[in-house]
Amino acid sequence: MHVVKAIIYTLLFFGILLINAALLLIVDFDDQEALWNNYIFFTAVFELLLVIIFLTITKYFDQSKFHIFNSKLLWLSIVLGVSFPFVQTPLNWLFNTLFNTNYFITYDFGGTIQTWPNIIAGIIIIPFAEEMFFKLSVQTELQKTLSRGKAILITASLFAFIHLPFVIIFIEPSAFEFHTAYIAFFIGLISSWLYSKSDNIWSSILMHMSVNLMVTLI
């Protein structure tokens, strides 16, 4: 039953993402250019608000999970997040070998050209929303009956699922790929392990933030 709940919650989160995108597409904004330039920011803020509402209504919003008590694990979270893009190279090699693709990272640290609101959304808001949702509701629910390892594995798998670009199927089916979800699975494994180890949401949030920061810089 707890696994079913976790899956349903994940589908709800995926629904939030779809509604989020749909609203911005159908609402008539006065300044369309400003909308698209800050699209990630607007969707991220809306996503975070819906996640907070969901966690509050379902009573998964546990303030004790935000208390910092193990600074060593927090530092470990940052180190793991910063180093992940470099670990991604062998992960890409494995993916390319298995599926005959050509994904790679160029470590030129040239940075990604984005607006500041979008950068803030990617580094801060999105990690907050995703980690709070998947750790406070999905993983918490799974840990009620499953072993730590199984809960971590399923949480990471569900986290990877929401990173599959389903929307693109309706726009350009040939562009559908699951490399992003593949990488997200490993990020989910690490962040879920950190949360399980620390019983503190900051460990997974900081890890996720660090990964996204490095992705932005690289």
Structure, described:
The protein is mostly helical. 72% of the residues lie in helices and 0% in strands. The protein has eight helices and no strands. α1 runs antiparallel to α3 and α4 runs antiparallel to α7. The longest helix is centred in the middle third of the chain and has 29 residues. It is globular. 31% of the residues are buried. One of its GO terms (biological process) is CAAX-box protein maturation. It holds the Pfam family Rce1-like. It comes from Fulvivirga lutea. Keywords: Hydrolase, Membrane, Metalloprotease, Protease, Transmembrane, Transmembrane helix. One of its GO terms (molecular function) is metallopeptidase activity.
Summarize the structure.
By secondary structure, the chain is mainly alpha-helical.
Distance between the termini: 42 Å
Mean pLDDT: 85
Q: What shape does the CA trace take? A: globular
Stretches with pLDDT under 50, minimum 5 residues: none
What is the helix content? over 70%
Number of helices: 8
Amount of beta strand? under 5%
Structural Rg: 17 Å
The string of secondary-structure elements, in order, is HHHHHHHH
Report the sheet with the most strands, covering strand number, pairing sense and barrel closure: none
User: What is the number of beta strands?
Assistant: 0
Which secondary-structure class do the elements indicate? mainly alpha
Keywords: Hydrolase, Membrane, Metalloprotease, Protease, Transmembrane, Transmembrane helix
Pfam families: Rce1-like (PF02517)
GO biological process, one term: CAAX-box protein maturation
GO molecular function, one term: metallopeptidase activity
